[in-house]
Design a protein that fits this description.
By secondary structure, the chain is mostly helical. The protein contains four helices and no strands. Among the domains are: 41 residues; 93 residues. The protein is 62% helix and 0% strand. The protein is elongated.
């Protein structure tokens, strides 16, 4: 009975070992065949082969990236740097309709300044003095031409001198009219100052 059991155990072990060896040999043969077929396939590939790695493959179960919400636009005061309530209008730009700046000081009336009247009167007097000086020079030339005219006996020379003297007389007449106009402007300015109740000391 014991001997029969041993025989049965040995038989079973032999069967198991034989099966394992057969499976191992079959697996080795199948792997060898696969390797040979893969080598033959690669020989026939001419183009570049793309290799996939874990970086190229995105898991299907990964959730989509979250998109940050749009940031709110900054307030106009923050962009311009001005404090709330301050005007952002550039300096020198005209104010918009309904928008006014702080009260600007009123412009001073130049007629309230004594230099305004003194300068006007001084300019007119300077023009009159300059014109008077030129009139004296022209009158001196007229007198000299007359002296030269009376000292000449040659009619041709006397004709030239007379023509020059006539032009000088016309120039003196023009200058006299300009002098009269300057005198009138001085009188008008004095009258304007009187109506404006300007102190007499401002018109000296």
């Amino acid at each position: 009975m014991v001997k029969s059991s041993r025989v049965r155990v040995v038989t079973i072990v032999g069967v198991v070992l034989g099966a394992w060896l057969a499976a191992h040999v079959a697996a080795g043969q199948s792997l060898g065949d696969v390797a040979r077929r893969e080598a033959e396939r690669r020989k026939g590939v001419t183009g570049p082969v793309k290799v996939y790695t874990n970086d190229n493959v995105r898991p299907a179960s990964s959730p989509p990236e979250s998109v940050p919400a749009a940031l709110p636009s900054p307030a106009p005061e923050a962009v311009s740097g001005a404090a709330p309530g301050e005007s952002t209008r550039p300096a020198g730009a005209p104010a918009a309709a309904g928008q006014t700046d702080q009260a600007a000081p009123a412009a001073k009336d130049p007629r309230e300044d004594p230099e305004y009247w003194r300068k006007r009167l001084a300019d007119l007097r300077s023009q009159r003095d300059q014109n008077t000086f030129l009139m004296v020079a022209v009158q001196s030339r007229i007198n000299a031409l007359w002296t030269d005219f009376t000292a000449r006996d040659d009619p041709a020379q006397r004709t030239v001198i007379a023509s020059d003297r006539q032009r000088a007389l016309a120039e003196l007449e023009r200058m006299q009219k300009a002098q009269d106009e300057i005198d009138k402007q001085i009188v008008d300015l004095q009258e304007e100052a009187r109506r404006a109740k300007i102190p007499p000391g401002w018109m000296r």
